[in-house]
Design brief:
Largest sheet of chain B: 7 strands, mixed
Radius of gyration of chain B: 27 Å
Distance between the termini of chain B: 58 Å
Number of helices of chain A: 6
Largest sheet of chain A: 5 strands, mixed
Shape of chain A: globular
Distance between the termini of chain A: 45 Å
Strand content of chain A: 5-15%
Number of strands of chain A: 5
Structural class of chain A: alpha+beta
Structural class of chain B: alpha+beta
Oligomer: heterodimer
Number of strands of chain B: 27
Strand order of the largest sheet of chain A: 2-1-5-3-4
Helix content of chain A: 25-40%
């Protein structure tokens, strides 16, 4: 059966069971690489997407739960040629080693900046508390989010 | 500065790209050949490393692979520097058994030292070959020519570009390197020494294809595997008909006690895995030791003992000398990669192609060939980056799993990503260790004698590290293969005994390494091998001795250290942190120092940590850490900083939180709730001072800061509370027990 969902502003029909985790739909059906499989249990944050602007774990969100909501993925923020200020800041701060957690960090930070455009360092740490990084890139990620906030405040 | 191109050949299904063959020296010839530096010694042809293309670009080959450490960027800097080419005109090809040099495993912080050295010399020699060609062709004198951005210019202003002589260079580069062309002096460097941005980051932060996990080949299937609760359990039965009838299932794969499923869609494979696991009946399997008696159990196992680092004093320590003894432990630790291991495999026309994030594609191929029972030329392993691994995690195991699944679904590529519990429960851990130290102080409060013993399993069961089979599924097949007898890694690098010989100048010392072959839990290489535990013990004990000598820990270290580069990093971190000699603590806050020269061969790192202790909850927080680093000549300052700060944060996590959970019936660490790691609010701020040594060779740095960090935290806690924690990790329960 085909189920229609809106992803990054475009309506997409996908043929999958309603209980299919959104993560597999995004990656395998819609060829969106941003969200990553990390744990499948909403523990690590690597699969974070925005659903109606709120950070959600795509690995435990069934396709049937999307309804008319708007799904935004990392690809929906910006592109290689035209990156979102957060993506630009992650490049400028070299805020990745393996980078497998980057998607979740950026998407959780996007939700933060939408809500709190001028966050303190403490705000950033708290907002990213549920996103695990293993390479020890934490401080660069914090700097990148603060830098993006500053850049966005200017424009 | 423009970044060089990351070659994306891996993602083209046809693999129709260039295939180069190198003439390798016949076996036996190597023994007589002159020793060449770095990996050039085992991969001696110039065109195994560098080829010039007609469009003026260069293709650079390396056997080392990107693991998120930024190595391809650093190697590209070295190659571009020696070639006098802009970085953007370089294409890096890495880790492909069909294309690149065999440089073994990307591990041990040796890529800059080995591959970097080879590329530096090969590219310097290639540049000389190109100049010679241009000179001959135009009747110029070679020593009058200059090169800027791949254009050779004669004194009269005439020019010839690398591209114009590319075709002629092919034959000239198809010869053995001499290693005799001098690379540039450090003073002439324009690209080396710069913080060139990492070439892999833009794709990683915009959703580009960046990982093996992201590969989608035409007609690709999805696989999952099912493993038992207990090590070595035997598969008795499954309800195959029920699983085969599930939607999308293409094959249920059973070979002995190896069990897996292949399906059209990923979620179908996951569902089938769940059903398959529920229907599987297993028997037997091996009991694990009682975790509460783990260290006594390890010490009770037979060991092979070696005595190392012996120094005999000319005059024995006085009988009246004050002595101190202490024992320290480190638990099993997980690599805990954020992304579970993944591989793609395709079995077509009798040949396997495996896309893998293994740290060593050639060693992996050797294992796959044994397990699949095919000749080496029937398996090609291609490296594609995965989630960070920090050593030998499930990367190699999942590659064999994927190949076994692909064999059951010929022609179609099969993508297999392990589930979280596969990774946590089945990967090889960093070994548990016991360290015992005993020392005597003379009347002046100096260390007169140092005795140190450690007990450990092996720290490498990597592919090809022993004679047997070293990939998980091979042990469970219908015709099972056995792991070879575990072996230690010889000094001076060492395995469990890595960094067990102190760099300090003690008049008398003796170190005993008790190598325990039997492995109660599966173990292999985790970042730093034994160095993390040994530096923890040695540097903690140094502070315990300083306390007994009534000396400041910083002054006590300097009083026992002659190595000027070691002294320099210790003094630099003290200055950076504003260390005050003899500073007292208030019972809640403390500051500690730790030092090591990694492997006693690589970079020098000194760390100062500030800790705060919540006596009610038992939680230690680490608000700030300082480090000073000497890694010889720095290739990429920001890359070096990133590796050192990453090591500091990871070590803070190991130190405060990490321990693999298990009981008699199996591994209990199966998700992040039973293996918590450091979170963003808990992360220390890090400040780093780099000491560049342009006249000294580059020293590996990827594992330099972990040992000094645990030591600094350990010593800071002792300074804050007056109590010593000697058993890792420093969990709230241990803190509360120590303070009770």
């Amino acid at each position: 059966m085909a189920i229609s969902i809106r992803v990054n502003g475009v309506s997409r029909a996908v043929a999958a069971e309603p209980d299919t985790p959104l993560l597999y739909i995004l990656r395998n059906d819609l060829a969106l690489n941003g969200a990553k499989f990390g744990c499948g249990q909403a523990q690590c944050g690597a699969c974070t997407v925005l659903i109606d602007g709120k950070a959600a774990r795509a690995c435990v969100t069934p396709l049937s739960a999307i309804g008319k909501s708007e799904v935004t993925t990392l690809e929906g923020l910006g592109t290689l040629e035209k990156p979102h200020p957060l993506q630009r800041a992650f490049m400028d701060e070299q805020a990745a080693q393996c980078g497998y957690c980057s998607n979740g960090m950026i998407m959780a930070a996007k939700e933060l900046l939408d809500r709190t455009p001028r966050p303190s360092e403490g705000d950033v740490r708290t907002a990213l508390a549920g996103n695990l990084c293993r390479c020890g890139t934490h401080n660069r990620i914090i700097r990148a989010v603060l830098r993006a906030a500053q850049e966005m405040g200017r424009t | 500065m423009h970044a060089p191109k990351l070659n994306r050949r891996q993602f083209s299904a046809g693999l129709g790209a260039v295939v180069v063959t190198f003439t390798l020296r016949p076996e036996g010839a190597l023994a007589q050949a002159a020793q060449l530096p770095g990996s050039l010694n085992t991969n001696r042809m110039l065109d195994a490393w560098i080829r010039i293309n007609a469009d003026g670009t260069a293709t650079v080959f390396t056997g080392k692979v990107e693991l998120g450490q930024g190595i391809l960027t650093a190697l590209a800097q070295i190659a571009a520097e020696e070639l006098d080419l802009p970085l953007a005109r370089l294409t890096m090809i890495s880790g492909d058994t069909g294309l690149t040099p065999n440089e073994g495993v990307t591990a041990g912080s040796q890529s800059i030292e080995n591959s970097g050295t080879a590329l530096r010399l090969a590219c310097a020699e290639a540049r000389a070959v190109l100049i010679e060609l241009a000179a001959k062709r135009n009747g110029w004198s070679a020593d009058t020519l200059t090169v800027i951005d791949g254009v050779i210019t004669a004194p009269n202003g005439n020019k010839v570009s690398y591209g114009e002589i590319a075709a002629a260079s092919a034959a000239e580069l198809h010869r053995e390197a001499t290693g005799k062309v001098k690379p540039k002096p450090a003073g002439a460097h324009r690209i080396v020494g710069k913080s060139v941005p990492r070439q892999d980051i833009p794709a990683k932060v915009t959703g580009g294809v960046a990982y093996v996990q992201d590969m989608r080949l035409p007609a690709m299937l999805h696989g999952r595997v099912v493993r038992p609760e207990r090590y070595d359990a035997k598969l008795e039965s499954i309800d195959e008909a029920k699983i085969t009838a599930m939607p999308g299932v293409v094959a249920v794969v059973r070979d002995g006690s190896f069990l897996g499923v292949v399906a059209e869609r990923e979620e179908q494979a996951v569902k089938a895995r769940t059903m398959l696991a529920a229907s599987a009946r297993w028997s037997g399997g091996r009991d694990l030791p009682d975790p509460s008696r783990l260290f006594a159990h390890l010490k009770s196992l037979p060991s092979q003992d070696s005595v190392i680092g012996v120094k005999q004093a000319s005059t024995p320590a006085l009988a009246s000398a004050r002595t101190l003894e202490a024992s320290y432990t480190k638990p099993y630790m997980s690599h805990a990669s954020i992304g579970p291991s993944c591989a793609l495999a395709q079995f077509k026309d009798g040949k396997y192609t495996v896309w893998t994030h293994s740290q060593g594609v050639f060693p992996l191929r050797a294992e796959l060939v044994k397990a699949l029972k095919v000749p080496a030329n029937m398996v090609r392993c291609v490296h594609v980056e995965g989630s960070g691994c920090y050593g030998h995690n499930g990367a190699d195991d999942v590659a064999l799993d994927a190949a076994l699944l692909a064999r059951a679904a010929p022609d179609r590529p099969v993508r297999l990503q392990w589930m979280r519990d596969d990774e946590f429960a089945w990967e090889p851990y960093g070994a548990a260790m016991i360290m015992q130290a005993k020392a005597a102080l003379d009347a002046e409060g100096r260390i007169a004698d140092w005795q140190y013993e450690l007990w450990s399993n092996t720290h490498s069961t990597r592919p090809q590290s022993t004679s047997g089979a070293n990939v998980l599924a091979a042990w469970y097949l219908n015709e099972p293969q056995k792991m070879g007898p575990p072996q230690g890694i010889p000094q001076p690098a060492g395995g469990g005994d890595r960094n067990s010989i102190p760099l300090y100048d003690f008049p008398s010392q003796r170190v005993v390494h008790h190598f325990i072959p039997e492995m109660p839990l599966r173990v292999s290489a985790l970042r730093t091998l034994g160095a993390y535990a040994n530096v923890f013990a040695i540097e903690s004990f140094m502070d315990e001795l300083a306390l007994m000598a009534n000396a400041d820990p910083l002054a006590f270290r300097l009083a026992h250290m002659k190595d000027p580069r070691a002294r320099a990093v210790i003094e630099a971190v003290a200055e950076k942190a504003g260390w005050k000699l003899g500073e007292k603590s208030d019972g809640l806050r403390g500051r500690g120092i730790g030092f090591a020269k990694y492997k006693n061969l690589a970079c020098y790192v000194a760390v100062v940590a500030d800790v705060e202790v919540d006596r009610q909850s038992g939680v230690i927080s680490v608000p700030r850490i300082y480090a000073a680093v000497d890694a010889g000549i720095i290739i990429n300052p920001d890359g070096l900083t990133s590796q050192i700060e990453g090591g500091i944060v990871q070590s803070t996590s190991w130190t405060l939180k990490e321990e693999v959970q298990f009981d008699k019936n199996g591994i209990r660490t199966r998700d992040w709730s039973n293996y918590p790691i450091l979170t963003m609010p808990e992360t220390p701020k890090v400040e780093i001072a780099l000491i560049n040594r342009p006249g000294e060779r580059s020293l590996g740095a990827g594992e330099g800061s972990q040992g000094p960090t645990v030591a600094a935290i350990s010593n800071a806690f002792a300074r804050a509370t007056g109590k010593r924690l000697r058993d890792l990790p420093f969990s709230p329960s241990k803190v509360k027990a120590a303070l009770a």
